[in-house]
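Thread: quick sanity check before group meeting

JM: Hey all, I'm pulling together slides for Thursday and realized we never actually wrote out the predicted structure for the chain we discussed last week. Dropping the sequence here so it's in one place. If anyone has concerns about the input, flag it before I start.
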Amino acid sequence: MDQRYRIAAEDWIEFEEEQHQVTGLTGALVRLRSISGHQQTIMLSVLLTDASFRALAAPPERADNGTAGLDPGGVLATLKNKQARDDALELEAHLHEATTGYRSGSSFEAEPGEPRPQYHPNLLLTDRVAAKAAELDLTERRVWQLLDEWEEKGLWGLVDGRKARLKNPLRNIDERVITAIREQAAAERLDSSSSVSTRFRRRCQNRLDEDYGADTVALPKPDTFRRVVKLLLHRSPSDPAYQRISDANQPDRTFGNVIAHRPGQVVMLDTTPLDVLAYDPAMNDTYNVELTIAIDVATRSILAWRLTPLGTKAIDIGLLLADVMTPEPMRPQWADALRYQMLRVPYERHLSVDERLAEAAARPVIYPETLLYDHGKPYKSDVVKRACRTWRIDLQDARKLKPTDKPHVERLFGTIREQFSMHVAGYKGFNVAHRGKNIEEQARWTLDEIAEFFAEYVVAVYQNQHHSGLHLHGFPDLHVSPNEAYAMALGSAGYVDCPRDPNLYYELLPIADNGRAINSYGVELNFLIYNEDVLYQFRRTKSPYDNGRWPIRYDPRNLLHAYFHNPRDDAWYTLRWTKALSDLQPFTDITLREAKRLVELRGGDPKDKDYQEQIATALWDLQNRTDAPETWTKTDRTRHTRDRHRAQAQAQDEARSTPAVPAAAPPPRPAADTARPTVPALHAVPDLTGEDDDFDPFTVQPAEVWNPHTSQEG
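JM (edit): ok, ran it. Output follows.
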């Protein structure tokens, strides 16, 4: 008759001449842990049919002081009781003398007077054991037992268990309580912080009641419960939430290493809020700033960066790639030691390839092969994909919420915080727990000034500072700087010339969906009408493109203009919004969406003929508020600051995209006089000559500010 067995978790069995505890059941599989610490998974049917299997009525008695599964040598080396270890070493010397005649165990290391007559190697082992038992005041049987334990367990077998007992602080804690604590902590890893003694304890008890029945398993007392939680969890539920969330994002496997052997092989991109508030003197207000950065893994060099108001655009990422392959220009106030020629590279040879390096700063110019970026929406846009396709750059995205996939750039953000951000007036800390009281009052630098400070930090400090992750080949103790690593890498990998395309800015801009038709009044884009003289010769004509419509590009940072490529002269032209107040009042796509929302709230319909006028009126109303600062809300001030800074960045990118032309041979301009460039050079103060040299700006009377509210009175 077959015997039946009931196996549950925590039961003890005997299998293959060794005792095991059942640690879990998964379908037809059983997880076992032997008394020595070995773990295995076996099919239940195989286990029950094995001839060596039998159930144990009671758990086996452990005689190893709780050291099952541990390294005996490691246990001995970490004993806090030094006397127990010294006694074991002394006893081992006695056993060496009883078995070999020498306390060291070898005749080559004999001490003076060895071997003693009663332990001479020529004597029988039984005689020497008897002599040692008499010397130690032990029975001969006890000495033979010590020899057996010494042979089986080594030095650990000679340790007095009463003096070296390993303490298990969880010995008296129910395994079900331990499981509930771990499972509840995993369920709350993304929640807000809470007290261990209140919410977390209550939820653990609820979990136990649901799994095993009400009042079946009780939690320990509150003080004991807090100690158990501290022992089991790396992050307590009462720890700051950002720390627990950061730990939860770590992968549950061994961290890999991103290795690059040459400059540009792997370039990491990422965006993070800069821990500094920027000041807007026009608004007398502060606002948050985002930092987008590109770092070369092989040399740890910061290749490019962009500081923008909160909300980085896809065009910013696309133009950041252009910055990677564009030399950083020298500033007039920078020392000559920061020039590109100080990188200890073949400067004259590089200059013959790229004349832009003549006035460049000491920052590597690298052609990227692979970009590693996160899942942010700007990085996955068509602008970035189109730019990488144009330059034959491979794209590799990191996993969601896995900052360990791009550890170099994440660690760089910490370095920037320690060396730059926290030393700038307006530093606000990286979370509210580190934020000061009057940060807004301390902020004094504009976004452009912070960008200049950061550029100087990168070129003068970071690129020349020894990096712990970079070392001289063959000398791991000699660390080098990113600039030195770049110079060494050029010797082995060579210099790759970066492409230079003056039309790159326009080609990176997004294209209106399905193209646009050129009508008698111009082209319509986002319910706005753009027009210019150059469109006259293409009105009501089909384009040479496949769908017969004309591709119109636009910059979402400034919708005052759109851009048209003339296939007849291969030139780019700027189209101006017909309802624009002036070029001094730019607006972004976010502002346009706000205007559309206001129109729709008033019952506007995009199918109406006057929808264009309604949007123009809504934008007019939004822009007129800039003339009445006393009526602005926080949202209005933020919108105005964002639009103005993004328009400035757009104008700078547009101006930089225009190739330099010698003054002696200016190129012919089209008759319409609208070919690029149309953005003049920006000057902080206009040049004054002649009698204007005595111009006093304080004598100029300010113009009256138009207030739409007061103009409607009466």
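AS: nice. Residues 8 and 22 are 7 Å apart (CA to CA). The chain is about 35% helix and 15% strand.
JM: adding both to the slides.
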